[in-house]
Write a structure and sequence with these properties.
Keywords: Membrane, Transmembrane, Transmembrane helix
Number of strands: 0
Shape: elongated
Oligomer: single chain
Helix content: 55-70%
Number of domains: 1
Length: about 110
């Protein structure tokens, strides 16, 4: 190909960052994060922990998409994964009970006030 287009000789190698294979990798990472968060906390704090974990993961995927300058194409990208995780995080936050969150983080808020 270099005989036809000499400019292709110095083209940087690009790794596959989207498509069905990477969607599986991203999905597996997100599911493992959710399962880990659910297993490490008591059942009353499962939804608030899921919310925090999903929103943190959404922020990481959005940061990766921004740094990699991913286009908004028809393939599944990090932007799509970030959007799904943000939706799950906000949904879990809306469904969680406020008194469980206050009882869990109340001692930290009192310590920060003093």
């Amino acid at each position: 190909m270099s005989l036809l287009h000499p400019s292709y000789d110095h083209a940087p190698l690009r790794r596959e960052g989207s498509g069905p294979r990477m969607f599986g990798v991203y999905s597996l990472a997100a599911v493992l994060l959710v399962v880990l968060a659910a297993r490490l906390v008591p059942s009353t704090l499962a939804l608030p922990a899921l919310s925090l974990a999903a929103l943190a993961a959404a922020g990481l995927f959005a940061l990766v998409a921004t740094l990699r300058n991913e286009p908004h194409s028809g393939d599944v990208t990090s932007w799509d994964i970030a959007g799904v995780l943000a939706l799950v995080g906000f949904s879990a936050a809306m469904l969680s009970e406020a008194e469980h969150v206050v009882s869990a983080f109340g001692h930290m808020l009192v310590a920060m006030a003093h």
